[in-house]
């Protein structure tokens, strides 16, 4: 399993719309898990000053993350695999 970030640019998006997108992606990843694809939404960060979000997923592939976002109908600019660094791991 890898960790991936979905980068979005959402000009004019509101906090309520971000919350609605969270509900949609949570629902889609839950459905995909029930269908046998182990994709999990971990967390998202909203950067209101730039209208960007970074949404983190655990999944077997970038394609699984892409499918979850497409099923949730949430636009994105890029999806890339990431390596997590924390104070405990360095």
- Tell me the total number of β-strands: 4
**What is the CATH topology?**
Alpha-Beta Plaits
Radius of gyration: 13 Å
- Cα shape: globular
Largest sheet: 4 strands, antiparallel
Oligomeric composition of the shown chains: single chain
Helix tally equals: 2
CATH architecture: 2-Layer Sandwich
What is the H/E order? EHEEHE
Q: Output the CATH homologous superfamily.
A: ORF SCO4226, nickel-binding ferredoxin-like monomer
β-strand percent reads: 25-35%
CATH class: Alpha Beta
Q: Please indicate the count of domains.
A: 1
Q: What structural category do the secondary elements indicate?
A: alpha+beta
Amino-to-carboxy terminus distance:
21 Å
Averaging pLDDT over every residue, what do you get?
93
Can you walk through the features of this model?
- The chain is α+β, with helices and mostly antiparallel strands and 90 residues long.
- Helix content is 33%, strand content 32%.
- A hairpin with a 4-residue loop joins β2 (40-47) and β3.
- It is built from 2 helices and 4 strands, in the order βαββαβ.
- The longest helix has 20 residues, at 15-34.
- A 4-stranded antiparallel sheet has the order 2-3-1-4.
- It has a single domain, classed as Alpha-Beta Plaits (2-Layer Sandwich), CATH 3.30.70.3090.
- The model has no long low-confidence stretch (mean pLDDT 93).
- The protein has helices spanning 15-34, 62-71, and strands at 2-9, 40-47, 52-59, 78-82.
- The protein is globular and about 35 Å long.
């Amino acid at each position: 399993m890898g960790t991936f970030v979905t980068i979005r640019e959402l000009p004019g998006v509101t906090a309520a719309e971000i919350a609605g997108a969270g509900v949609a992606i949570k629902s889609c990843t839950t459905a995909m898990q029930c269908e046998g694809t182990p994709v999990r939404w971990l967390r998202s960060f909203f950067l209101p000053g730039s209208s960007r979000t970074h949404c983190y997923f655990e999944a077997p592939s970038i394609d699984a993350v892409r499918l979850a976002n497409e099923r949730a109908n949430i636009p994105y600019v890029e999806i890339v695999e990431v390596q997590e660094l924390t104070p405990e791991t360095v």
